Amino acid sequence: MIQHYFRIAWRNLWKNKAFSLINIAGLAIGLTCCLLMSLYVKYELGYDSFQQKGDRIVRMIMEYSFSGSVNKGNYTSTKVAPVFKRTFPEVEASVRMTQASRVVHYQDKQFNEKRFMFADSSFFDLFSFPLLKGSKSDALSGPNKVVLTASSAERYFGKEDPVGKTIKVGSDETDYQVTGVIADCPSNSQIKYDFLASFSTLGANQEETYWNANYTTFLLLKDAASISALQAKIPGFMKNEMKGEVSGSDYVTFQLEPFKSIHLHSEYSGFEPNNSITYVYIVGAVAILMLLIACFTYINLSTARSMERAKEVGIRKVAGAEKKQVFWQFINESVIITFLSLCLSLALTALVLPAFNNLADRELGLKDLFSPFILLFAFIVMLSISFLAGSYPALILARFQPIKVLKGSFKNTASGLWLRRSLIVFQFVISVFLIIATFIIQNQLHFIQTKDLGYDRDHVLVMPMDGKMMKNIDALKTEFKTVPGVQNIARAVNDPTNILGGYNMRSASMPEETQIMTTANPVDEEFIKTTGIHILAGADFNHQDVLDVMKDSQNQKQYHYILNESAARELGWKKPEDAIGQKMFLGNQRPGYVKAVIRDFHFSSLHNPIKPLVLFNEEWTSTMLVKVSGSHLSQTIDGLQAKWKGMIPHRPFEYHFLDADYDKLYSAELRLGKVLNIFTAIAILLACLGLFGLSAYAIQQRTKEIGIRKVLGASVSNVVTLLSRDFIRLVIVAIVIAFPVAGWVMFKWLQDFTYRIEMSWWMFAIAAFAALFITLFTISFQAIRTALGNPVKSLRTE
């Protein structure tokens, strides 16, 4: 019997090739979208799942308040880890970590390693990274020891055993002993490194202060359930610890953040940018909606052919076929269609997976696609679609009364018409929602990328600096400026897209114990000119200002400060001119005078409001900014590279553009925008297929009516209007439903940005126009063809 079902089903599908192809293609596209997004969701939800002790690990978040200003971040001093390990019985182990960029030399090989991480020897007590060679107890147990990942070991040593060998690290070429080889970090790990060096190398063993917060601290608890108990103890403990250092309402405390929640739930990034659980939910919801659209398209196309199959069913019933036999015959056809769609979908998914990885910035492979979980998921989805999408046409066809069908008096049911129209409305609700969401997101991204930030980020090269370069900085600048196209060269600790340094400040008129939190950035005398920041009052730094802070004695140093408008107001100077020449302190160790006030500019993400900022001169730095003209850019870069190789042989030449740094601040939003662009187009395509099916069905049902109308004098435009009117009404209903839903969702999304666009009526009007245009375009082909048809052909069977 089953073999008979399959033979008839295959014969019928082959007979109606065009219909079968549309159905299989529609389901395959929907399944491909669902599989891709399911892989992404599984990947994100599985972040750090390989960490065996992950449920017992917490990250320390520092929170502190000065003069009512509260700040929080994923940083601590080196004091926190040992103190908490000694003090609280709930803590089993602790580790301090920091990531840096280091130039590594071995023989003739030289690379700038951007994932050079330092960690305590207790690192292996917390994290489940398998050590392939070496001993966990000794690998990081002293200064100048380093463990290499397997790929890094191969890059430097080839097939040689690296353990026991020495590499040179940094501009001072410090010797590091290789003590082990560790497996490469999984791609879905928030901790990624190529070199893992001993934390004691840094010489910052245990500071006596909680303030020098430049490191990341993780704690391993004895019991995952003790997080809340330990958290309750911390405020009281820190209050005792900070006696004499803070007063009044000021405080310092720490919060515990579960390790496995950091990637998707934390507002504080770790060693790599976080994702958002909201975006994962959005992707998951879109996956389900795309699958539903594909199923509804299949139902509508199958129903559109039901009248063609009605006589076949009537004859089979007269010949003795029972309802259940007819039902399972059509379910069997549905299974074949969905199975073929699944096979095609798996092939399509494998084909587009590299492009999807590039779009989502992830590393999904064929082993992920063909994993038992995904294959089982795909098989369950296939069976579900087979029954959900195939059962309605099967039930309708199985219930046909053979006498009515064979006499030609079979009529469509009101319930069936209502369901099909509901499916079309639902498809277009999704499509209109996605059109609105995509349009608003793209407008916000355009706003982000074109907004006047208060500085010039175009044609600015960002290059790394180190201590050896700093010693020869004047000569380097002079040589680099001889390269055609180079306009200005500045140095700074942070480039203007994301300034991070946290400091205290006060004016001379404020009490010493009164401190205001500020962000500050050490720069040189060309930073303002290079970045195009606008000075409102006062004068720019000059070379003498830089020399004034390079004196040997701290007492001889003379500091000069440039404040943004927000910092000047916080210090009590309402007008920029009022601040010029005023004495202030950046911390108690840096007394100086305000030299200028600059216009507020965005030195962090547009998610955040502009806060106080201080620019000051200092002799240490990490970044060089090179402003170029933009014309003959490749020749300018080649000229810089040639100068670099001649003057800076101890490190490789590398650069990136400042606007690329800015785009990185919005990587999650840019990915979401690209994903929505593509899947909105696919959703519209699938909705059009469903609309095509329903319109074909409606026109088929009204063929004789149209013939009679034409005989009675109806014009082509009359017939097209008649056939399109009902579908336009359905789309208008979908628009009415989609508008408030899309408006509410996008309003919530925009609230995450301090600086954002305003939603306007015309954004929704464009979406409505697009939906109506797509509807008319989809229906018009069949409607016009039917209206132009010969009425004699449609009436001659009467």
Tell me about this structure.
With 798 residues, this protein is α+β, with helices and mostly antiparallel strands. 50% of the residues lie in helices and 18% in strands. It has a six-stranded mixed β-barrel with strand order 3-4-9-6-8-7. Strands 14-15-20-17-19-18 form a six-stranded mixed beta barrel. Strands 13-21-12-22 form a four-stranded antiparallel sheet.
Concise structural overview:
By secondary structure, the protein is an alpha+beta fold.
Strand order of the largest sheet: 3-4-9-6-8-7
The chain-level structural class is: alpha+beta
Which overall shape is indicated by the principal axes computed on the Cα atoms? elongated
How far do the termini sit from each other? 39 Å
Helix content: 40-55%
For the largest beta-sheet, the strand count, sense and barrel status come to: 6 strands, mixed, barrel
Q: What is the number of helices? A: 27
Average pLDDT metric: 84
Low-confidence stretches: none
Q: Could you give the count of β-strands?
A: 22
Radius of gyration: 34 Å
Into which percentage range does the β-strand content fall? 15-25%
List keywords for this structure.
798 residues, alpha+beta, 6-stranded mixed beta barrel, 27 helices, 22 strands, 50% helix, 18% strand, elongated
Please outline the helices and strands.
Blueprint: H1 2-15, H2 17-45, E1 57-66, E2 69-73, H3 80-87, E3 91-106, E4 109-119, H4 123-126, E5 131-133, E6 145-149, H5 150-157, E7 166-169, E8 174-182, E9 195-198, E10 216-221, H6 227-241, E11 251-258, H7 262-265, H8 277-304, H9 306-318, H10 323-360, H11 366-369, H12 372-398, H13 402-407, H14 414-450, E12 460-464, H15 467-470, H16 473-480, E13 486-492, E14 502-507, E15 516-523, H17 527-531, E16 535-538, H18 543-548, E17 559-564, H19 565-570, H20 576-579, E18 583-586, E19 591-598, E20 613-617, E21 623-628, H21 633-647, E22 656-657, H22 658-664, H23 667-701, H24 703-711, H25 716-750, H26 761-787, H27 791-795
Parallel strand pairs: 4-9, 6-8, 15-20, 17-19
Antiparallel strand pairs: 1-2, 1-10, 1-11, 3-4, 3-7, 3-10, 5-8, 6-9, 7-8, 12-21, 12-22, 13-21, 14-15, 14-18, 16-19, 17-20, 18-19
